[in-house]
């Protein structure tokens, strides 16, 4: 029996676990019916255009294996050889203490050269890397101006920022200008601090490129540094594949260029490139790397191989774009709304509730053998559904034709109310 302070507290204090069990969160609330199917599905087989889901062959449109490097024979061999030579342990410790190697430094030098920057720093993961870089770069007097639809890792980086932050409406350069004016006024009042603008090269959900060229042009009016997360542009945009800055002809205006290896590179890790003196500063101040074990050697050697292929085989990017155009033009010709994408990311916008969206996805998977991701409320407003298709260099014309046919038929069913159900289908298991 609780006595004294414990008894008093019992009246006002919630049990953390009880609270979580009662409210599983906006997506977690569907867990019992969705787990293993709509959420946490397991795709089997070699990564590619066709994989198995619950024993059935599917055309897969949900992997960011843009250039098809995941299963490239040279990549598989480099990964296997490096793992045999070094294992996953090497090197042990953080880079700063004992975990550095010539391969790590070679990859950093090659990435910097590819991005036309002086230097770069490797990060173990994109998410914690950029978050921690934001923390390292900005102090309490600095102001961060950022796009409203920035990826969660940028938003979490902002949460670490002790100073002011001003958000501009998504890809709205006029509003960015306004926020820069506010930020400049604040700094003038404080008599200290600087401005960091953060945006993305390609917004991964809608596929629209960040307005980098226009933001860079604002440097004529305001003093600021620009950090760009180009997770979806790296390897897919620009003549050489160097990303959205190269595509828009403003790579020089990007002060810090960031990308994960989780997409075009089909791997793990990330990097940030920029002026040597600033990259050195980050190297010695970024907490997520200083206090964490360095990227294991097979990832570093595997990433060197991927970068070599990405640089030397532009036909992979050409094939990706040829597939993306066929898919996007085919959808548009059939009357689908694919929004404002100007990248290979292909969203399809429809109207419907969460249960309806899941019933349609089930039909797509079970009867048409199409596996794609859906985005629903609360990630986007109620009543909207986004199907998100990611074309890759390894998709075929047959994959595209079958998919266009499947979407045409299922959209007709959606419009006819065929998928109206009360609850999301119970597919857990
Ligand atoms: C825009 C963007 N930034 C950062 C990340 C995080 O990268 P990582 O998967 O390497 O943690 C992602 C997702 O992978 C992303 O889409």
Explained architecture:
The chain has about 425 residues and is of the alpha/beta class. The chain has two domains: about 25-65 and about 315-415, Alpha-Beta Complex (Aspartate Aminotransferase, domain 1); about 75-310, 3-Layer(aba) Sandwich (Aspartate Aminotransferase, domain 2), CATH 3.40.640.10. About 40% of the residues lie in helices and about 15% in strands. It has 16 helices and 14 strands. It has a seven-stranded mixed beta sheet, sandwiched between helices. Helix 6 (about 125-135) runs parallel beside helix 7, helix 14 packs parallel to helix 16 (about 395-415) and helix 15 (about 355-365) crosses helix 16 (about 395-415). It is globular, with a radius of gyration of 23 Å. The protein starts with a helix and ends in a 14-residue tail after the last helix. The mean pLDDT is about 95. Pyridoxal-5'-phosphate binds near residues 153, 229, 231, 260 and 270. Pyridoxal-5'-phosphate binds near residues 125, 200 and 270.
What integer is the average pLDDT? 95
CATH class of the largest domain: Alpha Beta
Instruction: Tell me the fraction of residues in β-strands, as a range.
Output: 5-15%
Q: Low-confidence spans: pLDDT under 50, at least 5 residues? A: none
Coarse morphology: globular
CATH architecture descriptor name of the largest domain: 3-Layer(aba) Sandwich
Bound molecule types:
pyridoxal-5'-phosphate
Radius of gyration, taken over Cα atoms and rounded to an integer in Å: 23 Å
Number of strands: 14
Structural class comes to alpha/beta
Q: Within the CATH hierarchy, at the fold level, what is the topology of the largest domain?
A: Aspartate Aminotransferase, domain 2
Distance between the termini: 40 Å
Tally the helices: what do you get? 16
Number of domains: 2
Helix percentage range: 40-55%
Main beta sheet: 7 strands, mixed
């Amino acid at each position: 029996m609780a006595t004294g302070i414990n008894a008093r507290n019992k009246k006002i204090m919630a049990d953390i676990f009880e609270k979580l069990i009662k409210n599983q969160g906006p997506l977690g609330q569907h867990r019992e019916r969705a787990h293993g199917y709509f959420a946490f599905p397991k795709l089997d087989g070699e990564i590619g255009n066709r994989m198995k889901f619950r024993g059935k062959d599917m055309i897969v449109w949900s992997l960011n294996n843009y250039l098809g490097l995941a299963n490239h024979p040279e990549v598989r061999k480099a990964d296997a050889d490096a793992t045999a030579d070094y294992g996953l342990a090497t090197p042990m410790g953080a880079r700063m203490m004992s975990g550095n190697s010539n391969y790590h430094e070679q990859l950093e030098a090659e990435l910097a050269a590819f991005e036309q920057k002086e230097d770069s720093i490797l990060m173990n993961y994109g998410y914690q890397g950029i978050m921690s870089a934001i923390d390292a770069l900005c102090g309490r007097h600095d102001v961060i101006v950022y796009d409203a639809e920035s990826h969660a890792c940028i938003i979490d980086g902002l949460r670490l920022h002790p100073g002011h932050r001003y958000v501009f409406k998504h890809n709205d350069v006029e509003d960015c200008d306004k926020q820069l004016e506010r930020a400049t006024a604040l700094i003038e009042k404080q008599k200290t601090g600087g401005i960091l603008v953060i945006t993305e090269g390609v917004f991964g959900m809608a596929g629209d490129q960040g307005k980098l060229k226009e933001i860079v042009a604002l440097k004529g009016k305001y003093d600021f540094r620009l950090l760009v997360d180009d997770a979806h542009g790296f390897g897919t945009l620009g003549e050489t594949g160097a990303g959205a800055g190269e595509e828009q002809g403003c790579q020089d205006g990007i002060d810090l260029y960031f990308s994960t290896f989780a997409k075009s590179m089909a791997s793990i890790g990330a990097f940030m490139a920029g002026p040597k003196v600033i990259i050195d500063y980050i190297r010695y101040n970024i907490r997520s790397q200083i206090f964490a074990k360095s990227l294991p050697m097979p990832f570093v050697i595997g990433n060197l191989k991927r970068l070599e292929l990405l640089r030397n085989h532009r036909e992979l990017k050409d094939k990706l774009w040829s597939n993306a155009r066929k898919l996007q033009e085919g959808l548009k010709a059939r009357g689908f709304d694919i929004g404002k994408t100007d990248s290979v990311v292909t969203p399809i916008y429809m109207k419907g509730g969460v249960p309806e969206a899941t019933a349609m996805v089930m039909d797509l998977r079970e009867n048409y053998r199409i596996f794609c991701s859906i985005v629903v409320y609360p990630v986007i407003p109620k009543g909207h559904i986004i199907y998100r298709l990611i074309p890759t260099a390894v998709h075929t014309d047959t994959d595209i034709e079958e998919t266009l046919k499947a979407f045409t038929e299922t959209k007709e069913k959606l419009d006819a109310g065929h998928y109206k159900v009360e609850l999301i289908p119970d597919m857990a298991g």
